[in-house]
Amino acid sequence: MKKIFFIISIAAALVIVSCKKPAGEGGNSSIRGKVHVKNYNDNFSILLNQYVGADEDVYIIYGDEVSYGNKIKSGPDGVFEFQYLRKGSYKIYVYSKDSVGTVAPPYSMLNPNLYAPKVAVLKSIEISKKKEEVDAGTVEIYN
Predict the structure, then answer these.
(1) Which of 10, 58, 86, 138 is deepest in the core (most CB within 10 A)?
(2) Which domain holds residue 120?
């Protein structure tokens, strides 16, 4: 009886150890970065001011997922951090006004499209080891 229990325990341990966990939450690594905002006039010809991106929505996509897995707000200093991540590939993004008209023409007097869609400013990040703190750098957006 002890022999059978021992064999079953070893088999269960091997199954648990051999399962590779995909990118996502449940680890002890983190991704940290900062949001910076450039505020232009309506047709993006004059930079009016720039500032830290406080209280901006920052999204993360785990691995090859098609939609975001989590969303956080940047802090008052524009800093954001996704914690408790496993090894794997990630994408972070923040929405920005479309300054070059890739989605829709930028706002102008001839084209008063105030509700043109925003574009995602995307960064790809790789966590390659446990307890890694990855610096995503600065994500620059337009407002």
Answers:
(1) 58
(2) 22-142
Q: Where are the beta strands (DSSP E) in the chain?
A: 25-40, 47-52, 57-62, 70-73, 79-85, 88-96, 119-127, 133-142
Evaluate if pTM is beyond 0.85: no
Q: Structure tokens of 121?
A: 């400013």
Q: Tell me how far apart the alpha carbons of residues 138 and 135 are, in angstroms, rounded to a whole number.
A: 9
What is the rounded CA–CA span in Å between residue 47 and residue 72?
Answer: 28
Residue 26 domain flag: yes
pLDDT digits (tens, 9 = 90+) for 16-74: 444 567 777 889 999 999 999 999 887 788 999 999 999 999 999 999 999 999 999 99
